[in-house]
Amino acid sequence: MEYTIILIFLSISICFYFLITQSGRRKSGVTTRLPPGPYPLPIIGNIFKLGDKPHHSLAALSKTYGPLMSLKLGTTTTIVVSSREIAQEFFSKHDASFADRSLLHVVTATDHYKYSIAWLPVGDRWRMLRKISKENLFVVHQLDASELVRKKKVQQLLDYVQDYSDSGKPVDIGEIAATTTLNVLGKPVDIGQIAATTTLNVLSNFIFSIDLAQYDSKSSQDFTDIVWSLMEISGRPNVADFFPILRPLDPQGLLRKTRIYTQKLLAIFEEYISKRLQERTTSSSDASSSKDLMDLLLDMSQNEKPSITLVGVRYLLFNSFESVVKCV
User: Fold this and answer.
1) DSSP state of 91
2) How far apart are CA 33 and CA 323, in angstroms?
3) Chain centroid offset of residue 189 CA
4) 198 in helix, strand or coil?
5) What is the pLDDT of residue 39?
6) What is the pLDDT of residue 279?
7) DSSP readout, 18-75?
8) Own/partner pairs for 58-64, CB < 8 Å, 24+ apart?
9) C-alpha angle with apex 260: 256 to 263, nearest 5 degrees?
10) Terminal C-alpha separation, the chain
11) Minimal CA–CA distance to 136: which of 298, 327, 328?
C-alpha cells in the first residue's frame, strides 16, 4: 500500500508512542473486552490484513472471527459489523450510543465538520439540519415538484446521444462492453460523464433553477473533477487516521489537497448565493410563489430567529452535490 514507506520512515517515533501508551495501560490496570479478531502486529496492527480490496478482506475475516470482530489499525481500535442482525441491534436499539462518527483527518481541512450533518455529533444543530433536510430535500412533494425538470433533463440526455446517431452509422457495442465510453460516429461519448452532467443539472435546477453543467463543457468537467477529487481523497487510506500522532505532519498531503478542492467548491456555491441575495434585494417583494431550494434556505437564514446561517447553507449544498456525484 502507498503508505508503507511512510510507516517505515516514521517507525521509530511510532514505536516510542506505542511503548508509552502500552506502558500506561499496564500501569492503570485497565482491561478492555473486545470482540475476537486477528492478532495485531506491533505498531501497525492489522493494517495489512485489509489488502487492496478491504471489503473483500473484511468479508473473508468475518468467516473466521464472526460477524462482530475487532481490528487494530495502527493505534486505532476498530469494531467491524458484518451481519444484518447485529447491525440492526446497533442502529435500532443502541442508535444514540453509536450515532457519532470519528472525524477523518481530511474532514478537518475546513470547517466542514462543524456544519455537516454527516459529521456533527448528535445535538441541537444536528437535529436542526436533519429537520431541514427531511422537510426540504427528502420530502415527497419536493420530488413531485421536480418531476417535470427530471423528465426534461433526461430528454436532453437522449437528444444529445441522438445527435451522434442521426447519420445512421452503427454503435460500437463491443466498446460499450469494454469501457464506459460509447463510440457513435467515430466520436467517443463518455457515458459516465454525460450521466453525471444530467444528474448535476437535475440537482442544480432543484436548488438554483439553472443548469450548472453543459455537455462537452470544460467548466462542467472542472466542477465534476473537483467533487470527484474530494471523493477519491476521502476514500484513500490515511496514515494520519491510523496514527493520530502524525496528524500535524500530514504525511501524505491529503489534508492540504482537501483544503484546496473544498475551498474551490465552496467558492462556486458562494458565488451563486451572493448572486441570489443580490437578486432578492433588487426584485419586487411579490416574487413568484414557486421557490427553489435556495430561496427556501435563504428564507430560513433571514428569519428573525434563523434556523440556519449562510455558512450552513454553503455546507448543506456542499453535502448535497458531494452525495450526488458520489452516487453517479
Assistant:
1) I
2) 36
3) 27
4) helix
5) 92
6) 85
7) HHHHHHHHHHHT--------PPPBTTTBTGGGS-S-HHHHHHHHHHHH-SEEEEEETT
8) 58/82, 61/37, 64/38
9) 130
10) 27
11) 298
